[in-house]
Design a protein that fits this description.
heterodimer; A: mainly alpha; two-stranded antiparallel sheet; 13 helices; B: mainly alpha; ABC transporter involved in vitamin B12 uptake, BtuC
């Protein structure tokens, strides 16, 4: 019995252990890795991805998947930029309204995504992939391929204003992480995600409106994608169709590396935080210790596989797809 | 004929309807010569989608195919002069090996295929970037024509690419429907636990399925390389998602066990007709991506057979 509990504990904390080992390794190779400056760099890069990954975490807990993030992030970024500039172009004016507008746009896209999935009975993989195309396309139509610059100093203070060595966007990401944690553990909706992912038959039998939970899950994911979009725009000061690029594989890899199971019912936002940090620490660490560029992709691949292997409880699953 | 019996033909009906609609609006789309050329041009995508079918048929996915194809374009370009036509063996061997390793990581190490193949793709990308020296390489034209000139050209009006595609489709179809391996694939896709219980060597079958998808990715990469006469670590980018879309639109859902290589043929044709129709119908370039996505949702909603999916996840 004792060893069984130890194994479960070990599996639960494995992603965090992997993260600590990685940090220790990079720090041993290059002491500068441990500087506040470098940690700030990692967290700045990770903040938008963390928001997107948290959004998709809820969907994955339900046993579905959402691949629409690239399109949704692009549309939210562009919608925010247009709205922001139209309303005055500085946070000190009514243009702050562009922030909630962008989040509403994200919610709306997620809502449509969920409806397409549930009402047309299309598996979420395909429905959200196609919705992602629609989103990227919509951003393309809105911008006509142009980049929109956001130069408002107040908005850019997300990046430029530092508190205790870290820029404001890191604290914003932390705040939304807490919100996500609250939703996951303290609301009925959060518990329902686990119910749907843990066993849909049971959830239906106990009278849960599964379709409603699914649509809400995708809507919530859309909101978090939009927060990711806002942070991404805050980070580089540009909104364009390409703002959403690379988020899809990055966020899902991070979720899985963090120990959230793709078949649903397991994991949560803290796992995702650890997963995102693992992916970004690997990326940053390889640059800091000076690995040549062409090796970095391969090393990332190997380390991701190892991280997932180490954090999988192989005794409790019979197969994976 | 009842609706139930018609279901397997939904993808075909969707394809026919699409072609007729586009043809009705712009008759020049139906010109046989341009249709043949249109289809010949997408043969590498089709081959990739064929390989993807095996991975999706067993309920997994292979996200490494694009990078495998990239790696192969570089390998083929670098070693063509040295090995001549036998470079193809090297390429196919590399594809088979990468696929088999992905399969091993998925089945024996319990890493979801989504992540395992994605990570293997990164490793292949590293190889391609290293081998190419991060440059776009071009093939030795003489050696290319001597070894692989037969891949392109026409015989009696039939482009050679189509013949190659036909042969590969026949092989894949034979594997899927006429061999024990094919039936084992279906068993694994439909219900892995049941397949284990009935004594199938599920791990071996799954590893082989991923190896096959890697092999097909390598063949697609080789064709790319010969067609564009060069190799580059980014040459095949953009084809992965299209290949997945082609398989899904054809009616092979990600749940596995349903669909197959013929579905993929239809799916690829649907994707290509949609893409080229937008050119024929003068759709504004910035609008194309969005319209593609919308039509995709409609096409998937029409083609997938939900009778075998109890829960839609």
């Amino acid at each position: 019995m004792g060893s069984r509990i130890r194994r479960e504990t070990l599996v639960k904390w494995a992603p965090l252990l992997v993260l600590i080992v990685l940090c220790a390794f990079f720090a041993a190779m290059e002491p500068r890795f441990l500087s506040t400056r470098n940690f700030a760099r990692i967290l700045i890069a990770a903040s938008p991805a963390l928001m997107v990954a948290i959004g998709v975490t809820f969907v994955i807990i339900m046993g579905s998947i959402d691949l629409s993030m690239e399109g949704t992030v692009s549309v939210c970024a562009v919608a925010f930029a247009f709205c922001f500039l139209w309303l005055g172009g500085t946070l000190a004016s009514w243009a702050w309204l562009a922030l909630p507008v962008a989040m509403l746009v994200g919610a709306a896209l997620g809502f449509i995504n969920g409806l397409v999935h549930v009402k047309l009975r299309i598996p979420s993989f395909m429905a959200s992939l196609a919705m992602g195309f629609v989103g990227t396309g919509l951003a393309m139509v809105m911008t006509g391929g142009d980049r929109i610059r956001i130069e408002d100093e107040l908005f850019r203070s997300l990046l430029t204003e530092r508190f205790l060595g870290f820029p404001l966007m890191v604290y914003v990401a932390g705040l939304f992480l807490l919100v996500a944690w609250f939703i996951q553990t303290r609301t009925t909706l959060g518990r329902n995600f686990y119910a749907v992912g843990g066993g849909e038959d049971l959830a239906i039998a106990s009278g849960l409106n599964v379709n409603r939970v699914r649509v809400l899950g995708f809507t919530l994911a859309g909101v978090f994608f939009s927060v990711g979009a806002l942070l991404a725009v805050g980070r580089i000061g540009i909104a364009e169709t390409a703002t959403g690029n690379n988020f899809m594989f990055l966020s899902i890899t991070a979720v899985v590396v963090g120990g959230t199971a793709l078949w649903g019912g397991l994991g949560g936002v803290w796992n995702t935080l650890v997963g995102v940090l693992i992916v970004f620490v690997i990326g940053n660490g390889m640059v800091v210790i000076g690995l040549p560029g062409y090796v970095q992709d391969g090393v990332l691949g190997i380390l991701v596989i190892l991280a997932v292997i180490l954090s999988t409880d192989r005794k409790s699953i019979s197969f994976v797809k | 004929m009842s609706l139930e019996k018609l279901k397997p033909y939904f993808p075909w009906i969707t394809l026919a309807a699409l072609v007729l609609v586009v043809g009705a609006i712009n008759p020049s789309f139906l010109n046989p010569a341009s249709l043949v050329q249109l289809v010949a041009d997408i043969v590498p995508l089709f081959i990739m989608a064929l390989g993807m079918t095996f991975a999706i048929y067993i309920g997994g996915i292979d996200l490494s195919m694009q990078q495998v194809a990239n790696l192969v374009t570089v390998v083929a370009t670098v070693y063509l002069v040295q090995y001549g036509i036998f470079v193809s063996l090297l390429c196919i061997g590399a594809g088979f090996a990468i696929g088999a390793i992905s399969g091993w990581i998925t089945t024996r190490q319990f890493v979801p295929s989504f992540v395992a193949t994605l990570a293997m793709g990164f490793i292949a990308l590293s190889g391609a970037r290293f081998l190419s020296g991060e440059r776009a390489l071009s093939m030795n034209a003489e050696a290319r024509d001597a070894s692989f000139g037969w891949m392109f050209g026409n015989t009696a009006g039939v482009p050679h690419e189509l013949v190659i595609a036909g042969i590969l489709l026949a092989i894949a179809w034979f594997l899927q429907t006429r061999t024990t391996f094919g039936r084992a694939l279906k068993a694994v896709g439909a219900g892995e636990l049941a397949a284990v219980a009935s004594g199938l060597k599920v791990d071996k079958i799954k590893i082989l399925a991923f190896a096959l998808s890697g092999t097909f990715a390598a063949i697609a990469g080789l064709m790319f390389s010969v067609k564009l006469s060069g190799g580059d670590a980014n040459l095949a980018n953009g084809f992965l998602i299209l290949a997945i879309v082609a398989v899904l639109v054809g009616g092979t859902p990600l749940t596995g066990g349903v669909g197959g290589v013929i579905n993929t043929l239809v799916g690829t044709l649907i994707v290509v007709v949609i893409r080229s129709a937008m050119v024929y119908l003068d759709v504004d370039a910035t609008m194309q991506q969005m319209i593609f996505g919308v039509i995709l949702i409609v096409a998937i909603a029409m083609t997938i057979d939900r009778s075998k999916m109890r829960i839609v996840k």
